[in-house]
Amino acid sequence: MALRSMIKAFLAVMFVSSAVFASEHESSHGHEEKAFNVNEMIMHHISDAHEWHLWGDSHNGTTIYLPIILIDGGLKMFSASHLYHGKSVTALDDDGKEYHYNVGEGVAEGYALFHETIYKLEHGELHFEGGHPHNAAPLDFSITRNVASLFITFFLMILIMFSVARFYKKNGAVAPKGIAKFIEPLIIFVRDDIAKANIGETKYKKYVHYLLTIFFFIWVSNLTGLIPLLGSNLTGNISVTLFLATATLLVTVFSGNKNYWKHIFATPGVPVALLPIMIPIEVVGILTKPFALMVRLFANITAGHIIILALISIIFINQSAGWGFLSVPMALFISVLELLVAFLQAYLFAMLSALFIGAAVEEAHH
Amino acid sequence: MELVTPDLGLLFWTGIVFCILLFLLVKFAWKPILSAVNAREEKISSALELAEKTKEEMKTLQAANENLLKEARSERDSMIKDAKEVASKMVEDAKGTAKVEASKLVAAARESINAEKGAAIAELKTHMATFSIEIAEKVVRGELSSAEKQKALADKLVDDINLN
């Protein structure tokens, strides 16, 4: 009963305050602001960018412009501010749909930025057809927000793991203290429950380093991705998960023994007549496993970011801070859940990688 | 679509960063950490083994001690028993000899007493005879001191003889 009355009171406060905030909003701002587009906002936040937007609106907020590196008849490097601060152009395609893009200035002359992709200008403009510019795009090796957060993950891991290693170097084989006390159980967890359990007592040694790196890389990236301002949707980016899955694929394929390939190209117990069907299936199977790894990590992390952003968006959709009483607790709950997901996905990725490797190095026992 | 289209630049950077990270961590973190952890685990397991072994040893040692104690105890018991036996035997022997000696002594004493008694009796007899003779002499003297008395005596003696 107490709980029900609390909920009632909570809802009452929420609606009253939403009404108050809503009226305030209308009186102060009127209709000059353009409608809040949830889809655009969320896509903007989970996609990569050439700037590190910290706060404020997109025109005069606080932003770190990241370096742009292009390979387009030679290496070209300049700050992204030349693109973001360039002239904003509105173009129309054949269907009469409007597109907004920025034309580069100064060193960025000849390039344009549309939806965080850099295109080469043709006759000083972009030509749109079917929703996409038809202009050529130079090879873009820019330090984007995701690359920058990749570097952050890199330095964090080096910092943490080196200090753990330093502890053991200094103190020898003693009980861990400080950060080593926190990290060691995880290392032992990866070694025993992931590597040893799936690959085997003797063969795991060759792969435990890879599994440790991939586990901590994903975990640290997932966690930094959850930190506001510092975070970026790194492990929720398909390029990153594509690389990680490819790494697991390569490790699996290159450590496959005779028994593994025999199971693929001459599956024991399968009639020879069926092999023409079985072999393609098995070969596709080699690829689908890491593909599932790639999609699982990408989808889980991106989904987490989307849910939190969508919950926060409730406030902006209703244009009332009162909705914060609803959306903030929910976003907080999902954030805490994401802490679990961050670990779980790192564990799953490492565990499944170990499982695939374990299957590839397994000896025949028939 | 943009969301699921891999980006070459990010792919490239991820590859580079991940490979460098893998190299550095394997060389400077995972290897030293794992070797230290393994060394410690071995140390702990060997220490545990040693403890177990020591425990076993202690057990056997304790058993040996117990045995030793038992043996010592039984030895002591038998020694005490022997000593007791010897002592009682000695006492018995002593008692026996003492009895014999005593009886001998008693016999000798009895003999000498008898001899002394005999001598004393013999002496007494001689003394008594002397005394009797003296008394008789004195009596006779008294009886024969006067004529009447001599006559009376002679009468009496005659009477006695007559009577006989």
Question: Layout of SSEs?
Answer:
The complex is a heterodimer of chains A (366) and B (164).
Chain A: H1 2-29, H2 38-46, E1 51-55, E2 62-65, E3 67-71, E4 75-79, H3 81-84, E5 87-92, E6 98-103, E7 111-114, E8 117-120, E9 128-129, E10 132-133, E11 139-140, H4 145-171, H5 179-199, H6 208-226, H7 238-255, H8 258-265, H9 275-317, H10 324-361
Antiparallel strand pairs in A: 1-2, 3-4, 3-11, 5-6, 6-7, 7-8, 9-10
Chain B: H1 8-143, H2 147-163
Describe the structure.
The complex is a heterodimer of chains A (366) and B (164). Chain A has 366 residues and is α+β, with helices and mostly antiparallel strands. In chain A, 59% of the residues lie in helices and 12% in strands. In chain A, helix 5 crosses helix 10 (324-361). The longest helix of chain A is centred in the C-terminal third of the chain and has 43 residues, at 275-317. The model of chain A is unreliable at 16-32 (pLDDT under 50). The longest helix of chain B is centred in the middle third of the chain and has 136 residues, at 8-143. The radius of gyration of chain B is 65 Å and the shape is rod-shaped. Classes of the chains: A alpha+beta (366), B mainly alpha (164).
Helix content of chain A: 55-70%
List the helices and strands of chain B in order.
HH
Contiguous low-pLDDT stretches of chain A (5 residues minimum) are: 16-32
Biggest interface, which chains?
A: A-B, 50 and 34 residues
Helix content of chain B: over 70%
The largest sheet of chain A has its strands arranged as: 5-6-7-8
Largest sheet of chain B: none
Rounded to an integer in angstroms, the radius of gyration calculated over CA atoms of chain A is 26 Å
Q: Which ranges of chain B are low-confidence, i.e. pLDDT below 50, for 5 or more consecutive residues? A: none
What structural class do helix, strand and pairing data of chain B support? mainly alpha
What's the pLDDT, averaged over the residues of chain B?
A: 90
Strand content of chain B: under 5%
